[in-house]
Amino acid sequence: MSAARDPVRDPEPGGGDGGVLVAAQVLAVAALAWPGPPRWRLPRGVRPLAVVAGAVGTALTEEGLRFLGRDVTAFPEPRAGARLQTTGPYAHSRHPVYAGLLVAATATAVLRRRPEPLVALAALAGVLHVKTGREERLLARRFGLAWEEYAASTPRLPALPRPGRGAAPGPTGGRRTG
After folding, report:
1. Are 151 and 91 in contact (CB under 8 A)?
2. Which residue has the higher pLDDT, 10 or 98?
3. Among candidates 50, 63, 123, which has minimal Cα distance to 72?
4. Considering only CA atoms, which of 36, 27, 30, 29 is closest in space to residue 114?
5. For residues 110 and 50, is the Cβ–Cβ distance under 8 A?
6. Can you list the domains of the chain with their CATH numbers?
7. Which DSSP string corresponds to 44-72?
8. How confident is the model at residue 137, as a pLDDT?
């Protein structure tokens, strides 16, 4: 009887829970298109803002994919020979593709004006949270110190504060006292 394979320590492209995460992501994105008529009206000005947000999210996703080039994969496991990308949109976010996807999905869910797409959005956010955690563990294993330095200076998502810079200074002026 052999020991169970640890998907973080011994990743197989598309194996482990990577395939499950990709399937869950696809299902959550597809559920944004849940059929049915709108159930409520949007407040004035929300529709154009959502359309712009959807376009910005789509553009961010496309730019992140373009920068990855041949290293693109739907799975959390980086491709063999992949480079650690730290320029372009990756200089502002460790996961610009996921960030753009979340922005575009949020816009879609708002524009659909139904509860089901909002549930799908929450599911997508949960799946991407788990997927980015797994992906980051695999990237740390693959790239070591280069990943640690990059992760320490670049936020996971663009709207989040950079690591170590997000907290407002407290009574000690931001200095550690203990």
Report:
1. no
2. 98
3. 63
4. 36
5. yes
6. 19-33+43-153 (1.20.120.1630)
7. TTHHHHHHHHHHHHHHHHHHHHHHHGGG-
8. 96
As a whole number of angstroms, the distance between CA 33 and CA 1 comes to 45
Mean pLDDT, the chain, integer: 86
Predicted local confidence at residue 14, as pLDDT: 42
pTM of the model: 0.80
Nearest to 17 by CA among 124, 130, 105: 130
pLDDT confidence of residue 160: 58
Give the DSSP per-residue string, 80-94: TT-----SGGGGT-S
Distance CA 124, CA 60 (A): 17
Positive or negative torsion for Cα 60, 63, 65, 71: negative
Mean pLDDT to the nearest integer, 154-161: 79
Question: 14 or 53: whose pLDDT is higher?
Answer: 53
How far apart (Å, rounded) are the C-alpha atoms in residues 26 and 30?
A: 6
Phi and psi at 72, nearest 5°, equal -65, 135
**Percentage, residues of the chain above pLDDT 70:** 80
